[in-house]
Design brief:
Blueprint: H1 4-22, H2 28-32, H3 34-50, H4 64-78, H5 90-94, H6 101-117, H7 122-132, H8 136-139
Length: 142
């Protein structure tokens, strides 16, 4: 009987594996609402920042529609949505734009507002902001 207990335990664990995988939590991108919600969030955020003369200097001459698409792609890639980001790395993309902390934090604030407007949960908001925060060093240059 002793020799059957370990075998039984192995069988139980093997059978539990697929069940555990089937109930795995969705990716952060899915929990954020996926492409429809993140597309709307990014569009709202970019529109708000682009309309604010106090912080929009780095948007001059930028194709905002293309920027929005790249931002959604980037968020999708860093939140496990399965996208592959095809844009420049953050440092190169922001090089020479002279973005300061004021502009950076204005963008963050507009992101927080847009996430709230689209009923994204606090947990998901905080997880996203935690993933994006380290990019500050590549974005802010003054």
């Amino acid at each position: 009987m002793k020799s059957r207990i370990p075998l039984l335990a192995i069988v139980v664990l093997l059978r539990a594996g697929p069940v555990a995988a089937a109930v795995a939590e969705p990716s952060l991108f899915e929990r954020l609402g996926g492409e429809p919600v993140m597309g709307a969030v990014i569009e709202e955020m970019v529109s708000a920042v682009a309309a604010d003369p106090a912080v929009n200097h780095s948007f001059e001459g930028v194709n905002l529609t293309k920027l929005e698409a790249k931002l959604v792609q980037h968020v999708c890639s860093v939140t496990g949505g399965g996208c592959i980001y095809t844009g420049d790395d953050m440092k190169l993309a922001h090089q020479g734009l002279g973005i300061g902390e004021r502009e950076f934090y204005a963008m963050v604030e507009q992101l927080r507002i847009a996430l709230a407007d689209h009923h994204v949960g606090e947990r998901e908001k905080n997880e996203l902001l935690r993933l994006l925060a380290p990019m500050k060093r590549d974005v802010v240059s003054r």
